[in-house]
């Protein structure tokens, strides 16, 4: 999930990935790390002091280390729900890319 929430392009990308294998189908999971409160896309790039404050508050509440700490529990829950999945992969850019690397560093 992008810091700005779910956008049609992200969902289309997930659909493309889920059917991109020539012989395999893939399950794609997009967690809502921000619990329904993503950053407002109008805050970026910050044009005003208010935008800077709101974006800063968002990252204060949703720091990469805090969100990365949620990843192991999420993977465990999804693994328990889908025990047939034996191999996992992760794709991330920008904020999400940190979520791939930080759990390794934390744990």
Blueprint of the fold:
Layout: H1 8-18, H2 49-61, H3 64-68, H4 71-81, H5 95-106
Describe this structure in words.
The chain is mainly α and 107 residues long. It has one domain. It is built from five helices and no strands. The model has no long low-confidence stretch (mean pLDDT 85).
Descriptive key words:
single chain; 107 residues; mainly alpha; 5 helices; 49% helix
**What proportion of the residues is helical, as a percent range?**
40-55%
What is the N-to-C order of secondary-structure elements (H for helix, E for strand)?
HHHHH
Q: Separation of termini?
A: 23 Å
Q: Note poorly predicted spans.
A: none
Q: Categorize the overall geometry.
A: globular
User: How many individual helices?
Assistant: 5
Number of domains: 1
The portion of residues forming beta strands comes to: under 5%
Mean pLDDT: 85
Structural class: mainly alpha
What's the Cα radius of gyration? 16 Å
**Main sheet characteristics:** none
How many E strands? 0
